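Blackboard transcription, Thursday session:
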Amino acid sequence: MSTKVVLGLVLWLVSRMVLALDTPQSTQSIFPSVNSHTKSQGAVLSVYGAINHQAIAPLFKAYQDRYPEVTIHYTEANTRYLYEQFLSRPNSRPDVMLSPAMDLQFKLANDGYALAYDSPELSNVPKDSHWRNELFGFTYEPIVTAINTDILAGEALPQSREQLLNLIRSKNHLLDDKIGLFDIQQSGLGYLAWAYDGQQSRSYGRLLEAFGTHQARLYTDTSAMLTALLKGQIFIAYNLVGAYAYQWSQQYPWIKTIMPTDYTSIIMRTAFIPRDARQPTLAKRFIDLLLSPEGQHILANQSAITPISTKAIGPYSREELSKLPHGIFRPIPLGLELLIQTDDAKKQLIYQEWDNAMQPVPHNASSVSLP
Amino acid sequence: MAKATTSIRRQLILMVATVLIVINAVALWSAHLYANRAAKESYDRLLYGSALQMAENITMLDSQVFIDLPVSAFETLALSTSDRAFYAMMNGQYQVLTGYKDLPDIPFTQLLQQSNEKEKFIPIYYEAIYRGERVRFVALGKRLLEADSVNDVFIIVGQTLDARRAAATEISQMALQFVTLFFFITLFLLLFVIWRVLQPLQVIKQAITERSPQELSPLEANVPSEIAPLLKSINYFMAQLDNTLSRLKRFTAEAAHQIRTPLAGLNSQAQNAIDETDDVLRQKQLQHILESSNLLTNTVNQLLNRATLTHRYQSHPFSPVLLDHVIKDTCRELVVWALERQVEIAYVGDIQVTINGDEFALKQMLQNIIENAIKYSPKGGMVEVALMLRKELPDTPIVLQIRDQGVGVPDQDKEHIFEYFYRSPDNFTSGSGIGLSIAKEVAEHHDARFHLKDNQPTGLIVEVIFPQRKGLSYEH
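(Written on the board underneath:)
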C-alpha cells in the first residue's frame, strides 16, 4: 500500500509539468490514478481552477483515495482567462470549474452552462452558499490588504481603509510605484472585489485617487503580487485573497495581513459542473467531496483555505478566522446581484474610471509583467 | 311487511358529502386559479420594478446614451432566489447597448408603435423559451430627451418562473389545507346535525318499543313540527286500533253471551221436556227446542259469514259483478221463504248495472237486508227491491232501495241498528241482530253509502248508494 502511495507521489512529481494549453497563462498538472491496474483505461476527471496547486492537491488526493481509478487533470489559470476559455472553446470544457470570481461563475450558471445537481452534501453547508442546484460555494475567504512592515518605520499598522489612506498620504512619494493592485481588466477576482468596494464604501473614490497618484502597479495573479511585496518592490498589496496572504505572513514575519476593520468583503470560491461535462458522474462525486465534512476539513487544514462550513475544525476554520481582528464581514451574495458585475456598460464605466485614475502618469499605466 | 327504502340518514350523508365535495373542489380550483394569478401579478410587478429602476439610470449625455445600471434593480430580481434573469438595453435602432444580445421574441412592433405614438410607454409582458427555460419578460420603453433630440431606448428584463411556481404552489397548498380542514369540520357538523334531526324518530321508535302491547294511549313525545304529523298519525292509528280492539272485545263478549243464552234456554227446555209427562206439552216443548236451536244455528251462521266476509275483504280482489242479476237471483232465492211468511217480494227496476265488487259479499248483503225486511213485514205485506240511477244527482249514483211495510225503526234506534247484536227494545221478532251490521260493512267495503229512511205510510227503507266510477257500466 505504502509503495503504491510512494509510486503515485513519484508519478505525480514527474508528471507535474507545465503544459501549454494555449498560452503560458495556464498550467496543467496530472494526478495519475493511484490504482496501477486500471491506470491505462482509467477515467479522467478534468478540473479547471484558479486555486493554487498546493491548495487543491490535498483534495485531489482525498478524491483519489475514494476513487483510485480516476486520473485528474488540473488546469490552473487566472479567473478571467478561465472564463473566456470556457466560452470560446466549447469543445474543451472541463468536468468541474473552480473559481473565486463569483460574478463570472454566476454568469455562466445563469446563462445555462451549469449542470443541475442535488448534492446530498448540501446539508453540510449554509443555505445561501449555493445558487439553485448549479453553483456551489465551498470557501469563505476575506479580501485582505497585505503590508510590508518595512514601510511603517515605527508607525502603527493601519487597520482600516481610512488608516491605509492616511498611511499613503503620510508616506507620499515613498509609495510611488510601490502599491500593488489586481489589474481589474485582467483578473476576474480583482474586478469583483473592486466593483464590490464601489458598492460598499465611500472611501472607494479616494482610494482610487490615491492609487492613481502613486502609480500603483497592476498584477494579474496573487503570488506575483505577494512575491513583489516580499521583495520590497511594493509595500502595500490591496484586495488580496486572504488565504495566500496569511500563508505568506506566517512564513515571512515582515509581511502583515489585515482585514480592514471598516468592512471586510468575503468571497466564496464556487464550483459548477458544466452541462457538457464528459464525466458528469465523476464531477458530481468531486462536488460531493468538496462540500462533505471531509472535504471541508481538508480545506481548513491542509489547503489553508477557510471552508464555507461552520462545522469544519482546523487552523483555517471560520471560527479561527473570526478570532482575527476584522470589521463587519460583508459576504458577496451569491445571487442575481452578481449580474451587475458582468454588465458590459457597468464594466466600461468602472474601467473608464480606473483608467482615468491610473493614466496621469503614462509611463506606468500598463501592467507590470510577471516576475 | 313494508320494505324499508334507503335510509334517510344515508341519503342525507351522501347528499351532504356530494355537495361538500363539489363545493370544495370548486373552491380548490378557484384558489388554484387565484394563486396562479396572484403569483403572476406579484412577480410581474417585481420584474416591472426592476425594469423601471434600470430605466431610471439610462440618460443622455453628450448625445450618447449613458447606462449605469443600479444594483437595486438586480437585488429586486434576486428576491426570487432560484430564478435565472436576463436583460438587455436597446437603442431605438434595436442595437443591444448592454446585456444579453440574443433575447428571443422581443415585441418590436408593439414597442415601435408605442414609440411612434409618442404616448407614455406601458410595459409589455410576454413569455418565451430562452436558454432551455421558459422565461417571463417585460419590455419597457423610455424616452430620452436632450435639448432638441428625442431618443427612445428599450429595456427588456426577463426571469424564469421557478419562484412564481413556488409561490403559486404555496398558496395552493395553503388553500388545500384550509379547504381540507373546512371540509372535515363541515362534514362533522353536518353529521351531528343529521343525527340531531333524526333523533325525534329514534325517540318515537324508542317510545313505541318500550310500550306493552296492550297500551294504546297516545304517545307523549316532544317532537319538531315536521315530525308532529307522523306522531299524530301514529296516535290516530293507535286510537283507531284501540277502538277496534274494544269493539272486538265487546263483540266477543256479546257473541258469547248471545250463544250462551239460547244454549241455556235449550238446556232448560230440554230438561223440561224430559220431566214433562204430558205428550202434547212435551211435543210443544220439543218444538221450542227446535226453534231455539234454529235460531242459534242462524246466529252462528251469521258469525261465520261475517268471519268469511272479513277474510274475503283481504284476500279477494274485486271483479265486475252484474248487480241487477245478483239482486234478481237473491230475490228469487228468498221468494219462497217470504211467501211462507205471506210476504211478497217485488223487484222494481229495468236497468242493467255492472260494478266492481265481490259478488259473494254483495249477495250476503242483499240477503241480510231482504231477510230483515221480510222478517219485519206484516202478513200480506210487500217488500220492494228497487234499483235505479239517480240522474238528477251529480255523478248519477246507482241507488238500491229495499222497502218494507213493517213498523219501521224509530229515529233514536237508527244509529244503533248497525251495532252488533243490537235489538230494538220493543222488537220481539227472532233475529241475531248481526245481519244489518254485516250488510253495512259490505256496502262500505264497496265504497257505497248505507242509509236508513222511513217508508210511507210505515216501514223502513234501506238505501245503498253505489258511486258511479270509471270502469263501471250500466245500460237501460
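Lecturer's comment: Residues 344-358 of chain A form the longest helix (15 residues).
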